[in-house]
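User: quick one, sequence for these tokens?
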């Protein structure tokens, strides 16, 4: 386990910290400590803020060598709000020196409290408090893993599926709500975190004994379990709307460190799932939306997500297969119809001259003003006025890459010479101890998000 606690507090009226610093119990130092003042204060307690709601299965406490400062009876409690506490367990004897580990069935908690019922003969000193998250962890390629797939595509959410040997119903403890963490690598000595998320389904089969696990939305799944009730926003940025919804419905569960402001808009929501609302806001803004492995929401332009890597792949390197092609999905005159009389038209005369006039109508009643409709029409026209480009790549090993990473590919056999592309989808797959990575890429050109951003600058008079 590692130290996850962010804020440490303790107190009984009057509020006292004692001589030890409360943060000492989360500093990863088993020589520093916290203790009440006086050191044998009746009903003394200290609680840990885990930084957000967690599924946890264990707490361990480090006690000193001096038995006189080890309590002989204490309780561990947990809470979601630091006000309403539920009893977790009681330790009714000397915990001994060093780490005392308490393992229990999964609970959902944000705060964990240690309350002393009976001090040692001289008082109580607490050195470290740590917690264990309740992931079902697949850490390496083992005989138990029959197959594994981890995927993330543009416009979608990270997802994973696993097929495991389940002889003797080994995974009988797996129950909802459950999270899964997957770490894989070509070398068991060097494993990489590839996925974390909530489990959507668990299926057991026999014969043979097989367990199938799926997570279709990662952590984003939980966003659709709460609905916005009669929420109205007037002339606010879409990013500000998302932050307000998270603060209102998911404070302490999700963070929004990667939520950008975006443009100003007005919306009315009633009985709509929060996840669907954020997806709508992302579509309207032309932004990327997903929830990462740390439960942080991403709502940002593609260009801002493209800063992670610049990778070069050449034909001479180990490549299973590469495909490059163009697709005729050209549209060069697009009508957008919004609510009531709201409408706009976007077109490109050069594309019409080269590829015929090609029309398409899009209806979206959530668009309530002509400016937004024009923005949508122009962005869609710019995105579809030229032939589409397809590029896919299969690699015979784990290739660490993220959505929107930049990749440069050279392969004269398919007409690519230092072709700069961006990852629009990736998939890691493990089958029969063979670990592969498949990539889908697009040529590095203006994405819809960048087109929308440029159009927004023009609307605002910014060069």
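Assistant:
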């Amino acid at each position: 386990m590692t130290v996850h606690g962010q804020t440490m507090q303790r107190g009984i009226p009057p509020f006292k910290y004692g001589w030890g610093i409360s943060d000492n119990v989360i500093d990863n130092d088993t020589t520093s400590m916290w203790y009440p003042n006086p050191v044998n204060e009746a009903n003394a307690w200290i609680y840990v803020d885990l930084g957000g709601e967690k599924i946890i299965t264990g707490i361990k406490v480090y006690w000193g060598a001096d038995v006189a400062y080890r309590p002989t009876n204490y309780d561990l409690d947990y809470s979601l709000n630091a006000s309403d506490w539920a009893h977790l367990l009681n330790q009714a004897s000397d915990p001994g020196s060093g780490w005392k580990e308490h393992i229990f069935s999964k609970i959902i908690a944000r705060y964990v409290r240690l309350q002393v019922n009976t001090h040692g003969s001289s008082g109580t000193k607490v050195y470290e408090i740590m917690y264990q998250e309740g992931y079902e962890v697949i850490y390496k390629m083992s005989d138990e893993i029959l197959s594994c797939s981890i995927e993330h595509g543009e416009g979608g959410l990270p997802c994973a599926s696993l097929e495991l040997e389940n002889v003797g119903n080994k995974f009988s403890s797996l129950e909802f709500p459950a999270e899964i963490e997957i770490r894989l690598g070509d070398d068991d000595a060097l494993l990489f975190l590839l996925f974390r998320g909530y489990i959507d389904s668990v299926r057991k089969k026999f014969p043979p004994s097989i367990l199938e696990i799926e997570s279709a939305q990662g952590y984003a799944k939980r966003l659709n379990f709460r609905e916005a009730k009669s929420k109205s926003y007037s002339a606010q940025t879409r990013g500000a709307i998302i932050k307000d919804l998270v603060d209102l419905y998911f404070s302490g569960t999700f963070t929004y460190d990667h939520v950008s402001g975006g443009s100003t808009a007005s919306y009315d929501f009633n009985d709509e799932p929060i996840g669907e609302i954020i997806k709508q806001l992302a579509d309207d803004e032309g932004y990327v939306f997903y929830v990462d492995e740390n439960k942080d929401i991403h709502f940002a332009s593609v260009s801002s997500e493209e800063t992670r890597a610049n990778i070069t792949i050449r034909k001479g390197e180990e490549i299973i297969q590469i495909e490059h092609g163009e697709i005729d999905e050209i549209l060069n005159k697009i009508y957008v119809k919004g609510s009531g009389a709201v409408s706009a038209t976007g077109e490109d005369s050069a594309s019409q001259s080269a590829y015929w006039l090609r029309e398409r109508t899009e209806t979206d009643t959530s668009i309530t003003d002509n400016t937004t409709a024009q923005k949508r029409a122009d962005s869609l026209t710019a995105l579809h006025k030229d032939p589409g480009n397809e590029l896919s790549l299969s690699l015979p090993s784990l290739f660490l890459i993220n959505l929107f990473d930049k990749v440069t590919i050279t392969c004269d056999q398919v007409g690519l010479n230092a072709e700069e592309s961006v990852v629009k989808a990736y998939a890691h797959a493990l089958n029969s101890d063979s670990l592969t990575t498949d990539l889908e890429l697009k040529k590095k050109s203006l994405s819809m998000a960048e087109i929308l951003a440029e159009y927004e600058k023009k609307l605002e008079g910014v060069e």
